[in-house]
Amino acid sequence: MANIFDLFKSCYQFLYSKKHAYALSGLLILSTLELHSQTVIKGSAIDAATEEPVAGASVVVKSTTNGTSTDANGAFTLQITRELPVTLSIRLIGYKSQEIDVYDAEEPVIISLSEDLNLLDEVVITGYTSQQRRSVSGAITSLNLSEGIRETAVSGFDQLLQGKIPGVQISSNTGVPGGGAVFRIRGSNSINAGVDPLYIVDGVFISNSNFIATNMGGQTQSNPLSDINPSDIENITVLKDANATAIYGSLGANGVVIITTKRGKQNTKAKISLSLSHGWASAIKKFQSATGPETAILANEAAYNTAIDRGQDPSAITLPVADPLNRPTYDRNSDLFRTAALSAYEISAQGGNSNSAYYAGLGYARQESIVKPSGFERYSGRFNYDNNLTDKLKTGTSIYLSQVYRNVSSNDNNPKGVINSAIFVRSYLPVYNEDGSYARYGSFDNHLALIEHLDNNAVTWRTVGNLFLEYSILEELKFRSSWSLDNIDLTENNYDDTFISAGVSTHGAATSYKAKNSVYTAEQLLTYNKLFKEKHALSVLLGNTVNAVQEEYARASGQGFATNDLKDVSVAATKSGSASKSESRLLSFFGKTSYTFNNRYTIDGNLRADASSKFGKNKRWGYFPSIGLTWDASQERFIKNANVFDALKFRGSFGYSGNQNGIDSYAALGLWSAGSNYLETAGTAPSQLANPDLTWETTRQLDLGFDVALLKNAISFSFDYYDKYTCDLLLNVPVPYRSGFTSFLQNYGAVRNSGIESGIQSTNITGKDFKWTTEFNISWNRNKIEKLASDITLGASGRNASILREGYSVNSFYLYKQLYVDPETGNAVYEDVNKDGFITSADRQIVGNALPDYTGGLTNELTYKDFSLNLFVYFQQGNKILSMHDFFLVHGGTQNNIGFIPRQLERWQKAGDVTDIPRMTTYNGDPAINNGSANNYGGNVANMSSRYLSDGSFIRFKNLAIGYNFPKSVIRSLQLSRLRATVSVTNLFTLTKYRGLDPEVNAQSGSQNTYGYDWATTPQPRTVQLTLNAAF
Amino acid sequence: MKKLYKNIRIATVLLSSLPFAACEGFLDLSPADSIPSAVAITNKETANAAIIGAYNSVQDYYSGYYITLGTITADNVSYNGTLSEYLQLDQNSVSPDNRGAVYVYQTVYAGINSANAIIATVGEVNDPLFSEAEKNRILGEAYFIRALGYFDLARGWGGVQLQLNPTTGLGILSGIKRSTLDQTYDQVLADLTKAEELLPDDDATTRNRAQKNAARALKARLYLYREQWPEAEAYASLVINSAKYTPVKPFRTFFTPPFLSAESVFELTFTSNDKNSYWNLWYPSAAGGQYTLKPSDALVAKLNDPGAGGTRHEIIEGSGSSVYGVLYNTVSTSTDPVYVIRIAELYLIRAEARIKKTTPDLSGALSDLNKIRDRAEVPRFDSADRDAIIQAIEDENSIEFAFEPHRWFDLNRTKRTGAVLGLTRTDYWLFPLPASDILSDPDVEQNPGY
Fold first, then answer.
1. Is domain B42-272+337-417 classified as CATH 3.30.230.10?
2. Contacts of B91 in chain A (CB under 8 A)
């Protein structure tokens, strides 16, 4: 820590010591001031609809810099030096800008501001600046977190955005609260480097790496974004195209998500808000198992058929399960689930006086998982403060602190996971032994033992802080210095007591982990904004950031405890530990300039230079330029005369951005790793081949789009086409194992993502009492690997059911294609791709893809008097899901210790049966023979057959919220300014052909290239939630 | 105006292009858990660390899957789990991406790469504190580890690509095709001869690092596999005649702590900081294991037969349908060694060599065989029929090394796999080369049938 600030210092010291004036001064054109006699104009601003005073509106004498802003009562006083009449220009975000001519200074000027509905006047946040949408060339979607959105029962803000933003695919990996989600902006750009966007909260680059160590079998253990309390968030802006993201250079290739939290407004009186909510979550569908008698019959049938296949007399063999029809059924699946409780309490205060503003918020949220025993609990506090130290110097801070507790339990492909221990065990086997102890079978633990005794607790302390100073050198020239920290401190204590299989042999096993991740960012910006001669708007930004990421891990484990009450590693019989750390740094310089002529034509460009410590010395620097063009056609006279369009804007952008995320800090170095020990002696072994030429992965993106508003802004529509080409992929190219290595990280390969996205907002009805608005968006993305060294197969714990292959999309499934089950023999027939008469590994083929063809969302909001209704529907179409449940639990009898799911009952039994589940057998004769019984459930194809693959498209009624604003009479008597009650139902119902529990699933989320697996994962619950909001 | 210029100056200085060079140092970072390849072997300490790293790879593949590859594939151990890689091995229909086979193939080569680096550089190291004797020891161990690696590959996959230089870049790989089985075994022999020459003479206690006898014992096994009976006999005798080794009694001694018994010619030691949790695959979940590997019913019957198993029944516990193997049994500490070469094997190698050589030595073979039967407290075997003795030696090997990687390889080398296991398709006697290599290596050819 000290060391990094020293380095910052040394860099900046050097900079201070240079005493030269540079060409920049050319930018600074000085305005001259004329002296006149003074006149005072007084007045006030009111909201046109509510007639309430509007505070904080800027009132400026047109074409001058002379201005003020309205106070808490909406009043303003302005001294002018010109002679009357003058034109005042009044602006406030959220209202239509107005100009008013003042002829007489004696009468107070009443300015009635009407709400701004024109989408081009909307001010959107862009990289490091905010601009009117009119001049934005990029594809930027901005979302204010309204109540309707916020009332969805999720733990992370990323999940709130599902289906709300065109071009962004968001899908939860699991139904466990605080669990991860896939977040892809315009598809996956990379294969081995990161594909997650850059998240910025109030200027702080935040980490979204998981640090929880409990093995969840390929599932990402947690979603670090759920450490952030969504209630504090005001706005989320997503930057998608190259011109918008180029300013973030090497961090921006996967898109940028800018989160702005609530801040107080100057001159507003304190507003205290309180929110209480409570909810109940339950499973929509539960895991299914064949009953005890069914399982026994299936097992016996497999043994009987196997005997026939082996040429034995089937009546002579001993069947594995005696008296099958009288076997009992033990329902383990129901034991897993519960009605989970959710609660959230928030309190916040915001306001400001004449030179400072504040927002303070405290939050508590607790969510249980519907599958025991996982849970999530978050305490959070935020304090945002801005102060004008002088007229020219402004300072501010945003500080966020949270403590997040996660109870994590192992699942997925771990036979000692909670879900596996219930769904895998044969249903006729008793849960308890005769002596009352937990019964265990085969590899599996007892599910109740796990639920009752698992003790995996992870606590994250997270600090996200920013301190900035802004100095107006001139009215139009500002310098901003910003210093940020995102710090994650994670402590995880896991204890397996002697009731859990993992603790039986060791007499108790405890492991403690500590992880620390710190992201430091120092940022210096100079911005210049000036309107010349009322027609030429110029804006220039120059900046520099220094970014460092430090990670530290420590782990201690101990085995052998005197009793189960002792859990600290310190008192274990044997102990071991380890610790490690790593660091990476990034140095960047960037500039952005934008010129608008006559409010109509805008050209803007960005250039960023980045140097990363991760890369080889030869190619450390990357340069990322971009350019954008905008034409606001609605300003043209001929369009205005046509009187059709309220807004019409065309835009295009082209540029480059880079990626270095997700690769190791020391990826370019040739290394021998230590720790290859033997006989308690330290050893070293070759671990990584050097690649001094390792450099940036580069994404080139073209974006063409337009925005339209019609019918007095009742309907607005935006459309984008994009084409992204990512080359020099940071690819772990597989190398022959005889090299002693498995892969070599090099810049090789290319991926293309192209697509269209569009959104419609429509105000269908606006009456006095009734209002109905609709929002709809839909996005298509096509992903294709353009260049790859060789096929890369991966996934399903070494079963390699996913493949990366040139010419195909990422996340393709690579399986044996089952054509049909022969109705005569009951044997599965697979496609013999190379027609050599045998089914071998050469007959595997790509049979589907886990990525949806399109995704989208539909939101309808209705308000009638004090009631409101918000219905949000999310849909995705065309994705495939590989069900590992079918793979494991429709095993045809080959697995002696594993039960069956009901789909196994559809097996072929007698000649003439038409089904896709082949005849039960464990015969393992010659699996090379196609159409032979050895291929039904064994042989090569035991690996992966297409019969485990199914369509995962769905339409989900994601959220329904009904709210009621208590009438003024009630509120006044309670001395409140607002009181609202809401009932919301999340995941109301889902339309899908998928037969598993939930089509929104991603069990192998640990790798971005193994999407679309369903495997012992908690489904998305249906949640009913009651919320009460009050403001004082 | 003056003030304005001052402001401008401050601003421009702040934004003046940072002197990139001054900050280059800011971007030079190096890890604290690895060392640059260029300085990996430069003195005595680093050379010692490198050979330790090579042993670690051998530990990795033996404790990982190698034992399983040589056991579950044959008739003594059967599959009882959930993981399909074991099911494939049990059914002898192994896919090219079978995790176990891939892991071993990959890890053996990692060890070979370590050994290659040592062989290429240790001789050149200029360190006054690094004695010639010590260099020779390290080089000898590296040759031994490379020999063991290629031997273990050859008997599983057939002739493989011979990498004899360290991988410093990918360019070095091209053009190396698969060798024949004979060429691969020739390389093993050459390395063992080097190892035997360079390794130190045996002391009385070292069993977990290679000394001369370990190389000789492996050579005896190599000659057995190549059916060079007189050489096999001679090298087996060299080891047997050493006072350092004796078949221990009772049988369980060698797999009971403190390990490193007189039984062991070469044994890989594990410690609580360097664990071997292989027992986990053998023990039932009630005892904390996975129970993926289960003694077959036929083996259980033999072990419980006083005329066949004798004291060797101690490698199993439990009863009825829940019999499990306990050769690897350090349930609470996970410190089971891997028994790479036991002296019992040398007796059985010599027995087989004696009976199979051109002029069979029946009494010599029987005496070696009975040495092992005596130790297990089973009745002595006697026969005047050469074939019966050969069968008896095969059966003895099967029981003696039931949970060690012998049976599958023995059946294949004697071409009895078809007769004993019913696996008549000889293609399946070899494992497939990893699918990833087939895709990434233009020089490799897959084994037939895969």
1. no
2. 924, 927, 938-939, 942
